[in-house]
Design brief:
- It is built from four helices and 17 strands.
- The chain has two domains: 7-119, Rieske Iron-sulfur Protein (3-layer Sandwich), CATH 2.102.10; 126-340, Alpha-Beta Complex (Naphthalene 1,2-dioxygenase Alpha Subunit, Chain A, domain 1), CATH 3.90.380.
- It is α+β, with helices and mostly antiparallel strands and 354 residues long.
- The longest helix is centred in the last third of the chain and has 30 residues, at 282-311.
- It is 17% helix and 31% strand.
- A seven-stranded antiparallel sheet has the order 11-17-16-15-14-13-12, with helices on one face. It has a four-stranded antiparallel sheet with strand order 5-6-7-8, with no helix packed on it. The protein has a three-stranded antiparallel sheet with strand order 1-10-9, with no helix packed on it.
- Bound molecules: FE2/S2 (inorganic) cluster and fe (ii) ion.
Length: 354
Amino acid sequence: MFIRNAWYVGAWSHELASEEMLSRRLLGENILFFRTATGRMSALRDRCSHRFAPLSLGRREGDCIRCMYHGLMFDADGKCVEEPGRSGVSPNTDVRSYPTVERYKQIWIWMGDSTLADPGLIPDCRFQDDPDWASIPAYIHYNADYRLILDNLLDFSHLAFVHEKTLGGSTTIAQTRPRVERVGDSVRFARWYMNEPEIAPYLRGFNTFDGPVDRWQIYEMHIPGNVLTMDSGSAPAGTGARNGHRVPEAMQFRSVQAITPEDDQSSHYFWTYAHGFNAKDQELTHKLTDRIAEGFEEDRRMIEAQQRAINDSGNDQMAFILADNGLALGRRMIEGRIASEIRAGQTTKGMSVA
Ligand code: FES
Ligand SMILES: [Fe+2]
């Protein structure tokens, strides 16, 4: 099941050049995105009110979409504005439209109670826009329940094993206990690895310094919307990074990772990994993004295999270990939000229990 009252990332802005339509399944519903002539984003249920033909099989007519089955036409707010063969339109022919906000190069969509859709609730992802931080918008499709991806991000001890030769590189990561706390609707983590003998494998060849390193990952997982925002990096050991002093040669990153459920067992993963060092070096941006994508592919392989094993497991119970505290907190927060939405009657048809 999904939290409905949240801003989710539905698409990258660049996926919707003018005149294009994009159909994407989000939270178990097909959504059609398109832009009007003024650039305003429209998100409609991708399903004609008449016989449920997908509107994505329709055609654009100005700022409207015409269903190409029997010809109903809908405006950018989902209002049915034309019905062939009669003046006016039949009752109950509008389709649902969803609030959207375009921000940080992304299209954010609210699929719950639209009266609660406050754009101020969108997490701060400004590093995706900031010219001093270079990143490339990236996307991964997952055949897995979004909560398994969150579990992975709520426990970085896996870096030592899943990413042994890429993003991790040190068993210290699994031996280190992070500070974990709930801050409002987020779980906040701070992990420091001090005086490690070397940088992580994925940074080799890009290093701005040699010798031992202080590494950190400080991040928040915003539970409604499943958005991780992270400050991470590596600095020459003993130069005060932990006390807030980031020397110029520190290799600093700001990452945003947004996981939007597609269905019960499939998910969209939108991510950037912006670097603040040598930010004008586009070749570096490409190479670093490729290396990180390699690491994220390791996660995908593990999590999809885990999903298949879970599906084979009937009612068998998983064991809990000490590293699960962040994961358990995140799961409790998700369950609490879903339960309160159910109590408030804000869930909608089409949702199923995962
Ligand atoms: S299904 Fe769209 S007009 Fe009939
Ligand atoms: Fe990972």
